[in-house]
Design goal:
The chain is α/β, with parallel strands linked by helices. It contains 7 helices and 11 strands. The mean pLDDT is 90. Its EC number is 2.3.1.204.
Length: 277
């Protein structure tokens, strides 16, 4: 394997394994944890956090999605299909999480020399290192007919399997990616297409939501013919982390950090009051 071409070497990396979908709880917890780690990273100059997380079926809405004219009809539809629904605390639009979607958060202190684009590029490089069997096939660039399209969509042959977001809080940076490693990308996309058909009807829509073509989304398993498990991806992540720092340690909430988490979770719950009724 080629050496990592990343500017993310730290004296210590902390690893959080939240990949058991039956123990990870609400996705609101996931975003509150990342905000907590982001705040902690801003106070520590040579420490980073990496967190893997997997959840049971949930649709995560963007802030703009919650303002659609018939949003409650859209939410009711998603729940009828067996999905929990939450709104996240960062940008972007609706995405699907389930047991075949591996989420990875890379959290580290903000470096004034690290532009927003450079933060994204670090994650793109990391993903290419995680899946060397894809060779040079992974492309970064917007797939406009996918759900939650963005500049740093990752695709193979024009079919998107991952999307990246970024959040900066109090001197810390959280770069988050969802990786569809298994299952049907087109079925997930069709779910979100049906959601928009309901939620965007009956009134004025003040933003451009994606006109989704399900065939432009896929999972890595569909694209490569390789079977990926959550444990396989976690093992690869840990191997790379050992190359990125002198020390790799587990991390959990304690009496000092739990109040920070509870505060961020309270904000997430407040944001979701209208859609969880």
């Amino acid at each position: 394997m080629e050496p990592l071409k990343l500017n993310l070497h730290r004296a210590t990396w902390h690893w959080l394994d939240h990949t058991d979908p039956f123990e990870s709880g609400s996705v609101m917890n996931a975003f509150a944890i990342d905000d907590t780690l982001c705040q902690l990273a801003g106070q520590q100059q040579n420490t980073g956090y990496v967190r893997g997380w997997v959840h049971r079926p949930t649709v995560v809405l963007g802030i703009q999605d919650t303002r659609l004219p018939s949003i409650q009809d859209g939410i009711a539809f998603l729940r009828e299909q067996g999905y929990d629904v939450i709104a996240r605390n960062s940008g972007g639009l609706a995405v699907v999480l389930d047991e075949g979607v591996y989420n990875l958060s890379l959290i580290f202190p903000e470096d004034k020399g690290l532009s927003i684009d450079r933060g994204y590029e670090q994650m793109v490089t990391l993903v290419r290192q995680l899946f060397p069997e894809t060779g040079e096939a992974i492309t970064d660039g917007e797939i406009p007919t996918s759900y939650c399209p963005g500049r740093y969509d990752l695709s193979i042959g024009g079919r998107k399997f991952a999307g990246i977001s970024q959040r900066r809080i109090r001197g810390g940076i959280a770069v988050q990616i969802y990786l569809a490693i298994a299952g049907s990308g087109s079925k997930r996309a069709d779910l979100i297409r049906a959601f928009y058909a309901l939620a965007a009807s009956g009134g004025e829509v003040k933003f451009h939501y994606p006109r989704i073509e399900p065939e432009t989304m896929a999972s890595l398993a569909e694209l490569t013919g390789v079977t990926y498990s959550v444990d396989t991806v976690t093992s690869r992540v840990l191997t790379l982390l050992e190359e990125l720092g002198d020390t790799l340690l587990p991390w959990t909430l304690d009496a000092t950090t739990r109040p920070l988490f509870e505060n961020h979770l309270k904000r997430m719950k407040k944001r979701n009051e209208d859609i969880t009724r």
